[in-house]
Design goal:
Length: about 375
């Protein structure tokens, strides 16, 4: 089965084609510095073909959640170096997801005077602050054209920081309602300049960020995550024709770059839109079927063996099973994830999931 065979994405070597999806875990403390918990969490999962880290903010203004890690300061870079070293010591490959939250934040979380977005349109609903209280999503500052260019360079610098920390590559977070995704939808982007209006204009920011990052660290170490038709956090893409036009423009803009991979989150990874993006962009392709159901071993095998994807990204099963690749290859039992602990603060539900060897040893004892 091809799922368990090695492959290469650009400069990165994967021991198998099971990818750990980027998963928000909020264990990096007040200052966003990777600590012992993060080191152990990622080290445990080094047997997966490639780890994509949780969304990591490039600048303080782009921080979305308390406890989310950053890659801006020397201390954060040093913390991530410990993570990368631990994963590499176990023979793994690790890529950092660069995530600017845009309007999905609050000044009490970012600890900056403002949050930013493509337009002065607040995300719907409320967010959780560090003290546990809730607050309405604030209206973001609309980035000027010059400020958009500055944010593009912030992404590029954060990519340099990630590579300096020893990670094997980076993934631009262009999905799930955060800043890059916010530019794609007319609901969150009401601009009238070169970044708004037409599908091509709304695709421009994603392409510019990916281009700048590829120039900064090499296209062979750069990927991007997209989530077409995934309405979330007020970023709506419910017009099929409009959505296809936007993602066609993005894929056409990415195609000349020669990226290491494109990572798409969609409930129907074999559908026409997702496969159209794959054909148009022409990069190694990771799919993730999303939040509707737990990704299964059989689904992953079929996706790769039928050439619908080059690899499969897995979320909850990778959280609950540090040795997921081994368990799937052996076609054996799995731990059940504990969702109530996904966004906790300690080791429980984070580094305490047993491996199959642990389970068997305890049963013998």
């Amino acid at each position: 089965m091809k799922l368990f065979e090695p492959t290469s994405f650009g400069a990165m070597r994967l021991s198998n084609r099971i990818v750990m999806a980027p998963l928000t875990r909020t264990r990096a403390g007040e200052h966003g510095i990777p600590n012992d918990l993060l080191v152990e969490h990622y080290r445990q999962r080094a047997g997966l073909g490639m780890i994509i880290t949780e969304g990591t903010w490039p600048v303080q203004e782009g921080r979305s959640y308390p406890g989310q890690p950053g890659i801006e300061t020397d201390e954060q870079i040093a913390g991530w170096r410990r993570v990368a070293d631990a994963v590499h010591a176990e023979g793994g490959t690790i890529v950092m997801q660069l995530m600017h939250g845009g309007r999905v934040s609050h000044p009490d979380i970012s600890q900056t005077p403002r949050i930013v977005g493509p337009s002065a349109v607040a995300a719907p609903g409320q967010t959780h602050l560090a003290d546990g209280s809730k607050a309405d999503m604030p209206v973001p500052h609309e980035l000027t054209t010059d400020e958009v260019a500055e944010v593009v360079q912030q992404f590029a610098q954060s990519a340099r920081n990630a590579i300096a920390a020893g990670l094997d590559g980076v993934e631009v977070h262009g999905a799930n309602g955060y800043l890059v995704h916010e530019f794609m939808s007319p609901v969150s982007n009401t601009r009238t300049d070169q970044y708004g209006g037409s599908p091509e204009n709304r695709a421009r920011f994603a392409v510019e960020v990916a281009t700048a990052v590829a120039e900064a660290v090499g296209a062979d170490r750069t990927g991007i995550r997209l989530s077409p038709e995934h309405g979330i956090q007020g970023v709506l893409e419910d017009d099929a024709v409009e959505t296809r036009a936007v993602y066609t423009a993005i894929a056409e803009g990415l195609a000349p770059l020669g990226l290491a991979f494109i990572d798409v989150l969609h409930a129907d990874p074999t559908g026409d839109l997702v496969q159209h993006v794959r054909r148009t962009a022409g990069a190694p392709f990771i799919v993730n079927s999303g939040f509707s159901s737990l990704t299964t071993r059989d689904e992953a095998v079929v996706l790769v063996d039928t050439d619908q994807a080059d690899a499969v990204a897995v979320g909850r099963a990778a959280i609950a099973n540090p040795d997921l690749a081994y368990r799937w290859e052996q076609d054996t039992e799995l731990n059940e994830p504990r969702p109530e602990l996904f966004y906790g603060q300690g080791a429980e539900g984070y580094t305490d999931y047993p491996t199959l060897a642990d389970v068997r040893a305890s049963s013998v004892a």
